[in-house]
Design brief:
The chain is α+β, with helices and mostly antiparallel strands. The chain contains five helices and nine strands; from the N terminus they run αααααβββββββββ. The protein has two domains: 67 residues, Orthogonal Bundle (434 Repressor (Amino-terminal Domain)), CATH 1.10.260; 103 residues, Jelly Rolls (Sandwich), CATH 2.60.120. Pfam families: Cupin_2 (PF07883), HTH_3 (PF01381).
């Protein structure tokens, strides 16, 4: 239990959040959050849930439920996690273990015909690297369009206005790597 505070602090720092910013979002005082991070007090389950939501993680991650995963760096095909699907039919899968200390997120983006990434990666920051595995995807990046074919890559600042749309007649698959992690 003493490591909860350490995990909260590390995740907060990874997201470049100041203690008072997170405290304000969670609805506790900076002093209370500082005590939690130093393991001098423990949050209620409601406070812990709010902290997890504001750090874009889970309560399970903060309490260390997946720490044994650090000992196994392999994510087998059966362990790939489905994350979400948007209205146009694009699906996102997490390709790495949940780990509060990781420096990047890796996703498989599976585009249905004519689907795009609307609703995904909207509050992103940092840098993005994408590698097209199959199909064809048009990236609209800061007013310019780029068509990626299998094997092509694109690298950009996540704050740059961007969109990605499947321009292939079937399914397209894209590897999306983002640093720091923040989905």
């Amino acid at each position: 239990m003493n490591r909860i505070g350490e995990r909260i602090r590390k995740k907060r720092e990874l997201l470049n959040l100041h203690l008072n910013e997170l405290a304000g979002k969670v609805g506790v005082s900076s002093s209370a959050l500082s005590q939690i991070e130093k393991s001098k007090s423990f949050p209620s389950i409601l406070t812990l849930k709010s902290i997890a939501e504001n750090l874009h993680t889970t309560v399970g991650e903060l309490i260390g439920e997946n720490e044994s995963l650090v000992n196994n760096p392999v994510v087998s095909r059966k362990d790939i996690k489905y994350i979400d699907q948007n209205q146009s039919g694009t699906m996102i899968y997490l390709l790495s273990h949940h780990d509060a200390n990781k420096q990047m997120d890796t996703y498989l983006v599976r585009f249905a015909r004519t689907s795009g990434i609307e609703g995904f990666f909207t509050n992103s920051y940092g840098q993005v690297f994408c590698h097209l595995l199959s199909g064809e995807v048009r990236f609209d990046l800061d007013g310019k369009s780029y068509v990626l074919k299998p094997g092509d890559n694109i690298y950009f600042n996540a704050k740059t206005p961007h969109d990605a749309i499947n321009s292939h007649s079937g399914i397209s698959e894209l590897l999306w790597i983002q640093s720091p992690p923040n989905f």
